[in-house]
Amino acid sequence: MTRFEPVLLANIEKPDCHTLKVYEAGGGYSALRKVLGSMSPHDVRELVKASGLRGRGGAGFPTGLKWTFLPKDHPGPIYFCLNADESEPGTFNNRYLMEFDPHQVLEGVIISSFATRASTAYFYMRYEYPTAWQRVQQAVEECYAAGLLGKNILGSGYSLDIYLHRGAAAYICGEETGLIESIEGKRAWPRIKPPFPAVEGLFRKPTVVNNVETAACVTQILSRGVDWFKSIGVPADPQNPRDAGSYGPKLYCLSGHVNRPGCYEAPLGITVNELIAEYGGGIRGGRKAKAAIPGGISMGLLTASEFDCPLDFNGPGRYGCLGLGTAAVVVMDETVSMVDFLHNSCQFFAHESCGQCTPCREGTAWSLRLMQRIKAGKGRWKDLDLLLEIGDNIGIIPGTTICGLADGAAWPLKNAIRKFRPELEEYIKRTNPQGYAETNAVPALQLLGIH
Amino acid sequence: MNVIEQGTDRMSGTTERVLTDEMVAEIQSLLPRYPSKQAVTLPALHLVHERLRHVPLAAVVEIAEILGLAPADVQDTLSFYGFFKQDRPHGNVRAWVCRSISCHLLGAEEVLAHLSRRLGVKPGETTADGKITLEYAECLGACEFAPCMLAGTTLHRCLDAQKADQFVDQLK
Ligand SMILES: Cc1cc2nc3c(=O)[nH]c(=O)nc-3n(C[C@H](O)[C@H](O)[C@H](O)COP(=O)(O)O)c2cc1C
Ligand code: SF4
Ligand code: FES
Question: Which of A38, A207, A263, A402 has the fewest CB atoms nearer than 10 Å to its CB?
Fold first, then answer.
């Protein structure tokens, strides 16, 4: 198979690829010039809608459609927020784009802001990206100096300011309404929806939140056209009116037990097997694979026998996972213990739950305590049922929480226990030969009399 | 309680200001970027944290005053983000060792344990000489370099005990 010619990553090998000079020499900002010179915001929205672009931030919502949810003829202000909080374990494609090609991202932000009639855009970046922060800041300054940002951009009459806003090491700031609360200066507690941000978002005004890679795709769609974008990926199933298809190139983050971890660009729909073999150089140390996370830890687990799973918006769901997520594939070889994996996953979500919804706050903390007990050789088979009960009952899919973090905590539990139960039972029995089958409740600590 | 008392104290002029005029000016220069003053909370906290390596309660009161908020509003936001130190400043360098899945699979736990032994501190603590604060982090978004660590603004890639030692030696 011939390798896909990268588009989103086309610039990253060039020296000084993060500068305006190099970006423009490669044709950069010609899409923006075309947009401002000859298109209306409506035209851009329709074009992006026609391209079938779906958000790259995790939920896969059609971008053009999201933009049309903004109220018509709103007097403004309308806000655009770029979600660069990228904190999903396994994921680093936004970092790649921001460090190596910040102008491709900014061009997408300017076009998207124009299309949504926003005159202020906030670029919300996680704290742990110092290099990206510095490069994007520099790129924004270059844009202002070149008349690509600020008042009356390129003489078009359109004005836009982009402000960088820095997170403070909290995963929940990536959830779009948590991000909005965080910009407003509050704790990043996600909001109950509806109202959706398009109707009432940042500062209670209509707001669009898009991911960094989504913005880069917008640049490429405006530059290369809808037909080009639709020629890549997996077309919508004509038998299924609800399938929006999986069009365009995608940045896949590959890490874990592979020979060549990295960020690779491929058409949507590449399988896990192909990604590992063609880009990852196979499993490290010639070992066998055991499992993989298909798209960030929130998406659950595929077993090695499920590596024919196509990484498009529908693929992982057909294999019992939550979805494509961030397309971050973390590969685990045969030496990995599922107890260890689950403990790590539970630790992450217990740490990152914002604490607002009881099922999520208590469920993530409880599942970590159960996993700690199992890991320490005090587990019982019954604990697996308790963990499944937690997994089946927290999240917006069962309808018990405000945001999707709890679904992300639930999926690794459900997948690991349902797909690897014999291994987990064996571990519990081996490490707790006396008590593994105990079904009595664990006695509570004696309560102090509190008055 | 403490916050209010310190605030009153300061306003009556009995306590030194914690924020310099320069910091106040910088915070004020951010106000036009947002339609609400409260939105400057996080940038202001970062600004102060960067200079003082912590945000003492007295600074919280002063930030609140600039932003027209109750000190509790600012303290509420600050305490939500485990990022900001409050009781005492962090060390010269804050070293975040990633413990999330990709790094964990490739030995992050050993690296963290090694650094902890070598520096004689537990994650979250600062060495006695004030040079390093050792911390764990969730995914640093650099999983292709697992296991990794962000120290200050430098990303240390593909760590093992030896490379971790080199990092410590360089700082000592
Ligand atoms: C817990 C949680 C964390 C999220 N983190 C991110 C993130 O770091 N970056 C991101 O773009 N989207 C993240 N999302 C998805 C956003 O809520 C939102 O759907 C996305 O930014 C929309 O952009 P898109 O339509 O361009 O994908 C997260 C969602 C949840 C529930
Ligand atoms: S589901 Fe969890 S993270 Fe999301 S709002 Fe509720 S408590 Fe917070
Ligand atoms: S898991 Fe450590 S950087 Fe992503």
Answer: A38
CA A81 to ligand 1 centroid distance, Å: 11
B75 Cα: distance to centroid of ligand 1 (angstroms)? 27
Contacts of B82 in chain A (CB under 8 A): 169-170
3 state DSSP class of A390 = helix
Question: What's the number of CA atoms in the CB half-sphere (13 Å) around residue B157?
Answer: 7
Q: Which residues line ligand 3 (CB under 6 A)?
A: A 89; B 98, 100-103, 139-143, 146, 148
Is residue A365 packed enough to be buried (19+ CB in 10 Å), middle (13-18) or exposed (0-12)?
middle
The answer to whether residues B7 and B38 belong to one domain is yes
Q: Chain B contact for A256, CB < 8 A?
A: yes
pLDDT at A440: 87
Structural domains counted in chain B: 2
- Answer with the one of B20, B54, B80 that is the final residue of a domain: B80
Question: Which spans in A52-129 are helix H?
Answer: 63-68, 93-100, 102-116
Residue A360 C-alpha to ligand 2 middle, in angstroms? 6
The verdict on residue B87 lying in a domain is no
Q: Work out which ligand 3 atom sits closest to the CA atom of A91.
A: 4
**Residue at B138 is within a domain:** yes
Q: By CB neighbour count within 10 A (0-12 exposed, 13-18 middle, 19+ buried), where does A31 fall?
A: buried
Establish if B85 belongs to a structural domain: no
Q: Give CA–CA dist B139/A98, Å, rounded.
A: 17
Query: Between 3.40.50.1110, 1.20.1440.230, 3.40.50.2000, 1.10.260.40, what CATH number should domain A338-447 receive?
Result: 1.20.1440.230
Interface predicted TM-score of the whole assembly (ipTM), two decimals: 0.96
Instruction: Give the pLDDT confidence of A91-142 residue by residue, as tens digits.
Output: 999 999 999 999 999 999 999 999 999 999 999 999 999 999 999 999 999 9
Amino acid B16: pLDDT: 83
Q: What is the mean pLDDT of residues A57-79?
A: 96
**Residues B76 and B97 occupy one common structural domain:** no
Nearest to B141 among A86, A165, A293 (CB): A86
Pair (B63, B131) in one structural domain = no
Pocket test for ligand 3, best of B96, B97, B102 (most atoms within 8 A of CB): B102
**With contacts defined as CB-CB under 8 Å, which chain A residues touch B72?**
none
The predicted-structure confidence for B93-134, as pLDDT tens digits, reads as follows 999 999 999 999 999 999 999 999 999 999 999 999 999 999
Q: Which class in CATH covers the domain with range A20-231?
A: alpha beta
Q: Which residue, A329, A109, A78, is CA-closest to A213?
A: A109
Cβ-based contacts of B155 with chain A (< 8 Å)? 131
pLDDT tens-digit map of B75-99: 999 999 999 999 999 999 999 999 9
B66 vs B64: CA distance, rounded Å:
5
Residue B6 has pLDDT above 80, yes or no: no
Q: Does the A246-333 domain belong in CATH 3.10.50.40?
A: no
